């Protein structure tokens, strides 16, 4: 028997495999395919203080080994989440994280305060890296002072696990990771999508209604693994790694680079059962390599 | 219940230079499938076919547990699908989406398909007939060469045809056909699937005559199961997902239709 | 007949298709496959003041729709280039650019001064964005003050076309583009490689000897197109776009986003004749779309 | 002169559970090909096979303008190649790299291949013999099941065999075979291709007896034509490209060999 349990700065997860926000709905969308309780954790769709319609269609474009999205945080607001969705999903025996976004620091605070009251939500993922909204979002996450300010403010009102989701669209991701660690983030998750763009050449028009959008999928994996490794060498809090994970090998790559847990996003679209395959694949790998505890993989890359 | 499953290709038949019809068999009893529903198919081995492709269910053969798909070769994904051979496996998520509504017994319905949009009309026609509704097909294409084989439709009901070059049926667009003009008033409902301008033209005519019109939209999809929120359409009720709340919509629900 | 000629701030190229530094050797490597004279321009391998052995093997890893490299500017130094290579290639009837790199500003100046003397080299591409060297390279290109300083210094000694190659590993590429425009760059080229990393999971070792390396190929195209478009909206000097171009459609995408010319890199490895196919494909597209002058494509994306 | 060309697969024969032999025919007369040279082959339709794969030229059939490749299924690329069918086209850049040297007439040469490293030894053995050199093959494998078919080699010369499990020939590694011990002193030259540890062990024995040793390296390659500088090996003369200055090197040139 191998141990798959990990500790996220005091919060135990039964295994290191989580789902990424915006790619797994509220878990319910995947109930036909897998048993949600088998997952280490799920991060539900980005939630804001108020209802948001999101961006106009078209919102996605396929790219080589990846996709662009410009959903723009479409959601019915935190109150709807609490009244309608939370009661339906709170029974999941997995770590449920709410991904919180906002246009102003006040928005973030107000949303986090409300979620703080929910018994079955052990943590939030502070989304300061959404590239698809005009105000807030990534604007917070690409500059250290604002990233620190919003984290600090939310830390004051939010008492449970505070994970901060970092943007890859920066010169130095370690600066921001250290900044949010300094003001009390319990963990960092990375990467959110890379800012990208595509043009329909025949129509000579942008592929997305918003012109630019967020790039995800295997194409971003090398950048994501590099950033996880850089952050691993810069901070002490646990890292949740993501960006292009398609199989157990990819997940292990992130752990070897320094991630304590991983999130799987776009791959869920290709194979709604991928998360379970990744968990099984990690077990197989551990057995094959004679590793009894998954924690041994964390930062386990051998440098000669 | 949706599922992800490997099916086996039992037949892949080219019907003209643009279209193939693929039969794919499940090892299990097929789940209940409604007209208008679709599958998300994984295109193996394509460097530029990362996402699944949504394809309507053209027909089902319950006796063989087969799903039948009509595929138009348009880009890399569909070209690779068209190359599938008997015995190959394909990875499907299905059945997805809502379904066309079935009007009351004895009523008449017009089924307007343009190009590959004829795909869901075959299963719809059959099911309507089984439910005591009188279907009328109206199929449009650029030219006779790329029109579907009409036999299967004709087995179910009368088939009106338009071609843009006049090589078969009425010359012009579907909206130029008598079924869309003189006969439209008799219909309880008009269903349409095809290119956006065609569907809008059909919807407009239906609206003028105050006839219920259901369209099947082909929005770009990433997940097909309501998780990504990429496939939205603007409705009077805000953004709705084409993959779960559609692909079939009553045009009355839609904004700017 | 369609016009393919473009003007790069006073420098005429017969068509907008160039090759990217480090992927096309000195042109000679491709003579068996294509007629070099058919190209708009070529940028030869990164050249430094002194001989460099480059990084240890392994230097490359395949990634989804791309590759990582860690060549590290292996070259025999500018004097060898002048004495041995230049005489062999100067007859090419195409715009030959030398890609100049260095560890210090003095290096850059000394190298540029020497190349300034070469009659058949109409321009240099100042590489302030190589991620694969310990000193200099990308360190110059990711911060505006140093990017400006090295450009300004080289501008003083280099009298011909000065193209500055920008790094994508920055929070705001427009800041740096505007900075180098301000001190006299004649054009900017972008993107150099994205900093990435891969781990061999079975061996638990980094795939590259240098751990991190430069990501190129179609996987980076959405990021590259986005940056070209951002820079197009920020500067007046011409832009040479690159990153993942595999075919004429990709090249046109860059031009629609604002590039006056394009460079093709990694694709040469997959198909050594790709450049010619791209030129032909642009012609076909123009004919099909009734465009008589390729310059109409530049920044021609239609925004509604 | 190197060229990039589409060839047609004329045969794809599985020789055991790990290896296939593919024949690919050109429409034109083959360029002159020397033993030790290789091709860069494009793996179509692989989502994770972006770069070409370097594969040694196993043999050529000039009468049919065919290039023959021996392929070991090891990852996604080689698995897709192994699935090629007669009539499929493959896109090759060839011929690439330098070649093994040919010693003077009448001398003896030992050709040591391990695993898929036997690939260039077949053409080398034939050409040596044609040049009046006496070749001796020594082929190693993990087990009999995955050893090459020996007929083609035996047609040219005597074949020594080692298997790690002793299922054929001498049990052990190639360096345990008499050809690498008692007989080594008779050889003018030793050629070797295979896993790194094997080649190093062979090179060490050759060095001890002061016999010239040429190795064919399998460094990772991106371009195969000397443009990317990814494939370098550390020589006493600095970094050299395995794809143009190799893949064959005299071990004396190499650092740390
Ligand atoms: C609900 C639904 C049902 C459909 N039913 C059928 C059907 O029965 N038969 C059929 O042949 N086609 C059908 N389509 C369209 C089909 O999904 C696309 O033609 C197909 O994805 C194109 O893939 P490709 O790789 O061949 O082309 P690409 O090279 O990817 O693109 C060619 C064109 O297809 C469009 N397209 C690409 N990806 C998608 C996508 N994921 N969703 C929608 N459009 C896309 C592009 O915008 C482009 O204009 C349906 C689409 C939807 C949404
Ligand atoms: C000059 C030369 C001659 C070769 N001759 C043969 C031959 O005759 N027959 C044969 O079967 N194989 C030969 N190889 C090795 C062959 O290129 C690799 O096994 C093949 O590229 C693996 O591809 P894959 O997609 O199957 O495996 P992958 O899944 O890509 O990788 C499997 C393993 O192969 C290695 N590999 C991957 N890509 C390359 C690459 N471009 N170059 C070298 N190694 C790589 C990886 O490090 C990994 O360990 C030769 C290699 C070289 C450099
Ligand atoms: C369609 C889509 C919607 C997303 N929505 C959100 C979101 O609401 N909040 C967020 O923090 N990240 C969002 N993301 C980013 C993912 O959570 C993840 O960071 C990114 O996709 C990289 O991982 P992947 O390559 O595994 O998808 C979204 C990604 C996609 C593809
Ligand atoms: C093997 C390799 C070597 C490179 N060497 C250089 C270099 O010496 N100087 C430089 O400015 N860019 C270098 N680059 C970057 C390319 O010129 C180009 O900016 C990048 O690869 C993106 O374009 P592509 O995706 O078309 O390859 C190199 C890229 C590769 C793949
Ligand atoms: S395609 Fe993902 S929600 Fe509809
Ligand atoms: S593989 Fe590119 S130089 Fe050898």
UniProtKB/TrEMBL annotation, chains A, C:
**Catalytic reaction(s) noted:** (S)-dihydroorotate + A = orotate + AH2
> What cofactor does its activity depend on?
FMN
Keywords for this protein: Cytoplasm, Flavoprotein, FMN, Oxidoreductase, Pyrimidine biosynthesis
- What is annotated as the active site? 130
The pathway noted for it is: Pyrimidine metabolism; UMP biosynthesis via de novo pathway
Quote the Pfam families the UniProt record gives.
DHO_dh (PF01180)
Q: Which residues bind FMN?
A: 21, 45-46, 99, 127, 165, 191, 217, 243-244, 265-266
- What family classification does the UniProt entry report for this protein? Belongs to the dihydroorotate dehydrogenase family. Type 1 subfamily.
Q: What protein name is recorded for this chain?
A: Dihydroorotate dehydrogenase
Which organism is this protein's natural source? Plebeiibacterium sediminum
Classification of source organism: Bacteria, Pseudomonadati, Bacteroidota, Bacteroidia, Marinilabiliales
Q: Which gene encodes it?
A: pyrD
TrEMBL record, chains B, D:
Cofactors needed by this protein, per the record, are: [2Fe-2S] cluster; FAD
How is the cofactor bound, in the record's words? Answer: Binds 1 [2Fe-2S] cluster per subunit.
Query: Which sites bind FAD?
Result: 53-56, 70-72
Pathway per the UniProt entry: Pyrimidine metabolism; UMP biosynthesis via de novo pathway; orotate from (S)-dihydroorotate (NAD(+) route): step 1/1
BP terms from Gene Ontology: 'de novo' UMP biosynthetic process
| Annotated InterPro entries | Cyt_c3_hydrogenase_gsu (IPR012165), Dihydroorotate_DH_ele_sf (IPR037117), Dihydroorotate_DH_Fe-S-bd (IPR019480), Dihydroorotate_DHASE_ETsu (IPR023455), FAD-bd_FR_type (IPR017927), FNR_nucleotide-bd (IPR039261), OxRdtase_FAD/NAD-bd (IPR001433), PyrK_electron_transfer (IPR050353)
Quaternary structure and partners: Heterotetramer of 2 PyrK and 2 PyrD type B subunits.
What name does the UniProt record give this protein?
Answer: Dihydroorotate dehydrogenase B (NAD(+)), electron transfer subunit
């Amino acid at each position: 028997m191998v141990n798959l349990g990990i500790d996220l700065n005091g919060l135990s997860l039964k295994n290191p495999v989580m789902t990424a926000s915006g790619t797994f709905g509220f878990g319910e969308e995947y109930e036909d395919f897998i048993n949600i309780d088998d997952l280490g954790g799920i991060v539900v769709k980005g939630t804001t203080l108020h209802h948001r319609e999101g961006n106009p269609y078209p919102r996605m474009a396929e790219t080589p080994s990846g996709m662009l999205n410009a959903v723009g945080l479409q959601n019915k607001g935190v109150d709807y989440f609490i009244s309608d969705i939370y009661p339906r999903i709170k029974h999941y025996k997995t770590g449920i994280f709410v991904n919180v976004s906002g246009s102003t620091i006040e928005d973030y605070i107000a949303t986090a305060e409300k979620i703080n009251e929910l018994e079955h939500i052990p943590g939030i993922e502070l989304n300061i890296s959404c590239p698809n909204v005009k105000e807030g979002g990534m604007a917070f996450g690409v500059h250290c002072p604002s990233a620190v300010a919003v984290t600090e403010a939310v830390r004051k009102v939010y008492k449970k696990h505070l994970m901060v989701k970092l943007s890859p669209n920066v010169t130095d991701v370690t600066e921001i990771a250290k900044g949010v660690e300094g003001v009390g983030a319990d963990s960092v998750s990375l990467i959110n999508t890379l800012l990208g763009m595509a043009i329909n050449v025949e129509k000579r028009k942008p592929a997305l209604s918003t012109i630019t959008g967020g790039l995800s999928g295997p194409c971003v994996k090398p950048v994501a693994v590099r950033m996880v490794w850089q952050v691993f060498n810069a901070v002490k809090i646990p890292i949740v790694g993501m960006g292009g994970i398609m199989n157990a090998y990819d997940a292990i790559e992130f752990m070897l680079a320094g991630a304590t847990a991983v999130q799987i996003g776009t791959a869920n679209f290709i194979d709604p059962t991928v998360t379970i395959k990744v968990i099984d694949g990690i077990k197989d790998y551990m057995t094959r390599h004679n590793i009894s505890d998954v924690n041994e993989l964390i930062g386990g890359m051998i440098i000669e | 219940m949706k599922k992800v499953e490997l099916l086996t290709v039992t037949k892949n038949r080219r019907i003209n230079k643009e279209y193939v019809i693929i039969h794919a068999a499940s090892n299990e009893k097929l789940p209940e499938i409604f007209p208008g529903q679709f599958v998300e198919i994984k295109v193996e081995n394509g460097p530029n076919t990362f996402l699944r492709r949504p394809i309507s269910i053209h027909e089902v053969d319950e006796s063989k547990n087969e799903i039948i798909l009509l595929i138009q070769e348009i880009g890399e994904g569909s070209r690779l699908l068209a190359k599938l051979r008997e015995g190959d496996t394909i990875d499907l998520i299905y059945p997805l989406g809502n379904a066309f509504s079935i009007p009351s017994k004895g009523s008449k319905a017009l089924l307007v398909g343009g190009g590959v949009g004829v795909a869901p009309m075959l299963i719809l026609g059959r099911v309507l007939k089984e439910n005591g509704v009188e279907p009328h097909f109206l199929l449009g294409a650029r030219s006779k060469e790329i029109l579907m084989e009409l036999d299967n439709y004709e087995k179910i009901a009368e088939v009106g045809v338009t071609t843009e070059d006049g090589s078969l049926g009425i010359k012009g667009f579907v909206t130029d056909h008598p079924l869309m003009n003189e006969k439209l008033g008799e219909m309880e409902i008009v269903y349409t699937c095809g290119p956006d301008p065609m569907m809008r033209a059909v919807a407009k005519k239906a609206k003028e005559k105050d006839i219920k019109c259901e369209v099947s939209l082909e929005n770009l999809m990433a997940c097909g199961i309501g998780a990504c929120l990429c496939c939205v359409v603007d409705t009077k009720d805000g953004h709705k997902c084409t993959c779960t709340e559609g692909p079939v919509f009553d045009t009355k629900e839609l904004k700017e239709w």
